[in-house]
Amino acid sequence: MNDKTVNELIKASKRLIGLKQVKKAIIDSVGLRCVILADDTDKHIRDLILQLAKETRTEVINYPRKDELGAACGIDVSCAVVGILK
Questions:
Q1: Span 62-73, mean pLDDT?
Q2: What's 27-62 look like in SS3?
Q3: Quick one: what percent of the chain has pLDDT higher than 90?
Q4: Distance of alpha carbon 61 from alpha carbon 36, whole angstroms
Q5: What share of the chain is helix, strand, coil (3-state, %, to 5)?
Q6: Quick check: 22 and 75 in contact, CB under 8 A?
Q7: What is the CA radius of gyration of the chain?
Q8: Ranges 1-5, 10-14, 45-49, 78-82: which has the least confidence
Q9: Which of 18, 28, 78, 82 has the greatest number of C-beta atoms within 10 Å?
Q10: What whole-number distance in Å separates Cα of residue 6 and Cα of residue 12?
Q11: Which pTM was predicted?
Q12: Over 70: is that where the pLDDT of 3 sits?
């Protein structure tokens, strides 16, 4: 999926922004369509999300940078992870 398509997905979908919300949604099986994870996310956060996603068979889409992901979500700060709800 290219950046333009991912940006459209982010804008057109209900989403959860940030580690705490996405982690809880994955663990509670809230019904995530996918998780978008910034490539420059800290290793321990990245590893945690990848492990949880693997365990729950949640698709992970990589995004180039946290600041760009935050901007795509319409927030003024960087964002490491976004969950897209079904």
A1: 94
A2: HCCCCEEEEEEECCCCHHHHHHHHHHHHHHCCEEEE
A3: 78
A4: 5
A5: 45, 25, 30
A6: no
A7: 11
A8: 1-5
A9: 82
A10: 10
A11: 0.90
A12: no
Residue with tokens 């492990």: 51
Q: What is the mean pLDDT of the chain?
A: 92
Which amino acid would we find at residue 50?
L
Q: How distant, in Å, are the alpha carbons of 12, 13, 50, 86 from that of 39? A: 22, 21, 12, 23
What's the rounded Cα separation, in Å, for the pair 70 and 54? 24
Comparing CA positions, the residue from 34, 62, 30, 32 lying closest to residue 46 is 62
Q: How far apart are CA 86 and CA 49, in angstroms?
A: 18
Q: What's the sign of the alpha-carbon dihedral 49, 26, 7, 60?
A: positive
The structure tokens 């795509």 sit at 72
Domain segments of the chain as ranges: 3-85
In the numeric block, which tokens belong to residue 43?
Answer: 């290793």
